[in-house]
Each structure stands twice: as structure tokens, then as C-alpha cells.
Design goal:
The protein is of the alpha+beta class. It has helices at 28-33, 50-53, 68-71, 76-92, 105-120, 123-126, 177-202, 209-214, 284-289, 328-331, 343-351; strands spanning 65-67, 95-99, 138-142, 156-163, 167-168, 220-228, 240-243, 249-254, 260-264, 267-270, 278-282, 299-301, 309-316, 323-324, 341-342. Strand 9 (260-264) and strand 10 (267-270) form a beta hairpin. The longest helix has 26 residues, at 177-202.
Length: 367
Amino acid sequence: MANSASPVVTLPSSTAIPNIHATEIPSIKAFAESTELLAIPSTYNSLTNLHDRQVAEELAAQIPVIDFSHLISDDPELHAKGVQHLARACEDWGFFMVTNHGIPESLMDDVINMSHKFHDMSVEEKAEFADKGVSNPIRFGTSFNAKMEDIHSWRDYLKVIIKYPADFTFPLKPAGFKELAQEYCQVTKAVARKLLEGISESLGLEPNAIAKATDFDAGLQVLIANLYPPCPQPELALGMPPHSDHGLLTLLTQNGIDGLQINHKGKWVKVNPLPKCIIVNTSDQLEVVSNGRYRSILHRATLNNKDTRISLAINNGPQFEKVVGPAEELLKKEEAVFRSMSYKEYFELQQKNRLDGKACLDHVRIN
């Protein structure tokens, strides 16, 4: 689909307005395409020192890979092996790639392509979905929370809140996007459910323990379709700053363009996904439920100056009104590391503020 967006901001071709604010830019894609930028606005300069840019390339090959077929196997030995691998991945990395997940490759490709088509619509076409607050089921915007930020992110997003079992409000354009997205959300939720069962077992709990404790089957799902346009100074800006996710597990796929980095023991590691794998990271409510044993992981999105990156993240969380705390079975053997908080309160706390690492989780941490 051709991009028909009108120029949003006109800048001299050789420079950028130093203090332009993201609230003045309804779409970073349209902004980037509206003029021949040779530099980014100073308000997008995220990487201010050399340490921020260093990447431990040698660690990329060590990122865990989980064979999903082992987790769902009826063979007790194979299943136990899968649970053991999952435990190590959660404890050591908080991040892993899932293969043999059963999600059709064609569905993965189609939903990524539809996400791209949505972002290729003009600013005017997407205006009806403009972000009006965290409670809106459909939100289109740029950066993360432009009103609260000092430094902005070089990305556009579409966020859709799905409340199971039946509330699926979704943009009706482009045609066919809703149906594809609904199918994709349902199959990824099923994969997340099975991963949670394996995680429960790895903690010495019954397979359904975490799902029951969080009312996962009636839980919240948030689809986030990110677009990261080419950036004239990718070494200075970020598509997303370091942060952890709300929810239990985030499942992500992308369009083959690199950009995701994870923080492993203080070092940034570039993610080189296996073909058609699902990328999974443990999220804040899983850290709470596991009483700190499985920590949510810091990750960020980097940029390039040539290609547009599309990523599709699905946050899988508890039931929205559910009060979430450490699993009761774990507290029979250890002291609580976190206090309880409703998922709705936590979700709104994170989404209404600027991203700052894992600062949101500190609100429920017992010091």
C-alpha cells in the first residue's frame, strides 16, 4: 500500500529542530519521510555515552532455544527435559526462542504484513485511533508516553487491548487485519498457556498453578504492532529504551530486520532469531508470582538507517482486575519478596508514566 501521509513537520534538509517534542509529531514515520533528515532532533538522542552502545556479540549464540514439542510431549522423559531447559532459560536469561511451536508460518507472515499495511496508511486514516489514554482498547501513537518523556523513542505503535474470553475490539482497516490478528492472538495465547504450565512445573508447582492464580484464561492480552523507520543517526537514538514488560510472558515476532537487544548480566546482547521462531521474554507479573525467582528482563529496540523494522509483540497477562502476588505455595517455604497489587493498577502505573528500566516493579518490591 502506498504511503499517502502528508508532511507533518517541515525541516531544513541539513539539520533538525533541536527541541522538537514528540507531542508535535503524530507519526515518526511521516515525520521521517517529510524531509531529508541528516540529523535527529536532540530530544531523540538516547545513547549519550559509549557504554550505552557496547554490545556483547559473543553472547548472542548462547541465547536459549526451547523446543516446544518437548514441553507438550506425552513422553515423560522428553517432557521433563523440556521443563528443565525452560527453567534454566527463565532463571539464567529471562529470554528464549521457541521452535516447533505449531503456529503456521503463513499466519505469522500475514499478520506482520498486515501490521505494516496499517502503518503505511496515511496519518489522516489512522487519526481515529490516536492514543487518548491507556484505557482505550485501540491506541495509535509514537514514542511511548510523549507527554511524560524528556527523551523520545523513534517508533510508531498500534496497541490493542484484548480481554478474554470475548472482547476483541480491533481496527477494521486495512481489510482483513482484524480476522488475522484475532487468530494470531488466540494461537499465541495457547502457546503462552503451555509455557506457563512448564514454568509452574519448574517451580515445583502444579502445571495449572500460575494460570489459576492469575486467572490467565480470562486474562488481558495486548497486541503491539511496532514500526521503526530508518533513522539518520541510529547510533544515537533508540526505537525503545531499556524496559521490562508488564504481564506474565511476552511473545514477539518480527519482519527479519534486526533491532532487538536484551540485557544479560549487565551486558547488551543482540538477538539473532532463528527462522520462524517465537521470541519470548519473562515479564513483571511472572517475577512477582515466582517471588523473584524468574526475573523480568530488560530489553531495548535499536535502529538502522536503511530498513524499516516491524515487530509484533503480544503481552499475555493476568485477568485485569486480579490481585497478583507471589504464589501461595512458594510462600510456605520462603518470605515474600513482593507485595500484591491488582494487574489493572500495575498496568496503568506503567503505561501512564515514562519507561525507566524496571522502576515500575519497585512499587511492589518489599525492601
